[in-house]
Design brief:
The protein is of the alpha+beta class and 206 residues long. It is built from 7 helices and 8 strands; from the N terminus they run ββαββααββααααββ. A hairpin with a 6-residue loop joins strand 3 and strand 4.
Length: 206
C-alpha cells in the first residue's frame, strides 16, 4: 500500500533528501537548512509553529518533515499557496520537488504539495488523505507510459499528482554529455542548444 498526505491548510510538508549530508560548513543538511532555519523563523515571529514531525522516508537517509503552523493557508488563494511552497524550499525541502510544486500551484492544481509513503506516519495527529494498492515507489514516467499505452495507471496518482515534471518543464536529457563552456556576455542560442554526447565527435543541436 501507499499512503498519500496532502498539505492541509495549516501544514508545511517537506521532503528532506540525504538529511545527514554535509554542507559547506561541515554540519548536516538537516541541521543547517531545516532545524536552524526553522528555529530562526520561529524566533523572528515569521512562522508560528504548533508541532514539528520528522519521520524516515522510504529512501535511505531521506526524511519527511511536517511543520504544523497556527495560521491557516487558504489553498484557493494562490499567493498563500505559493508562500507555503517557498517556506518548504527555504526549510530545505527537495528543490526538484519544490519547483514542480510551484508550477502546479500557479497552474491552479489543488494538491500542489503532498508526500507519498509506504506506511502511515506512526502516532500522527491525522490519517492519510488517500491510499492506493501500489507497493513500489510511483515512477512518473511509468505512470504516464501506462496511460499512453491505453492501460490503467494508479487512480490516486492520476487524481492527486496529475501532471509530470516533464509536462511542466519539458523532458530532461538522460544522455551523458560533455561540458560546454558558455562565454561571458551575450551567449549564442546555438551554443545553448548544442549537445555534445559522450563518445560522439560532433555536437548536435535541438
Amino acid at each position: 500500500m501507499s499512503y498519500w498526505y496532502v498539505a492541509h491548510d495549516d501544514e508545511l510538508l517537506l521532503d528532506l533528501d540525504d538529511y545527514m549530508r554535509p554542507t559547506k560548513t561541515g554540519c548536516p543538511w538537516g541541521e543547517a537548512f531545516f532545524r536552524r532555519r526553522l528555529r530562526n523563523a520561529m524566533a523572528a515571529g515569521k512562522l508560528k509553529v504548533s508541532e514539528v514531525w520528522l519521520v524516515r522516508s522510504t529512501s535511505e537517509r531521506h526524511f519527511h518533515a511536517i511543520v504544523r503552523t497556527s495560521s491557516f493557508i487558504n489553498r484557493s488563494d494562490l499567493a498563500a499557496q505559493v508562500s507555503r511552497l517557498i517556506w518548504q524550499l527555504h526549510l530545505g525541502s527537495d528543490l526538484y520537488r519544490g519547483r514542480a510544486d510551484l508550477m502546479r500551484a500557479v497552474r491552479g492544481f489543488p494538491c500542489a504539495s503532498l508526500l507519498i509513503r509506504d506506511e502511515p506516519i506512526p502516532n500522527f495527529y491525522r490519517k492519510p488523505d488517500a491510499q492506493c494498492d501500489c507497493t513500489k515507489k510511483h515512477s512518473t514516467e511509468e505512470q504516464f507510459n501506462i496511460v499512453n499505452s491505453g492501460g490503467i495507471a494508479c487512480p490516486v496518482f492520476q487524481q492527486l499528482r496529475g501532471v509530470s515534471p516533464w509536462e511542466l518543464f519539458g523532458p530532461s536529457s538522460k544522455e551523458s554529455e560533455k561540458f560546454i563552456p558558455l562565454p561571458a556576455g551575450r551567449v549564442p542560442l546555438e551554443l545553448v542548444m548544442s549537445k555534445f554526447i559522450e563518445g560522439e565527435e560532433n555536437g548536435t543541436s535541438g
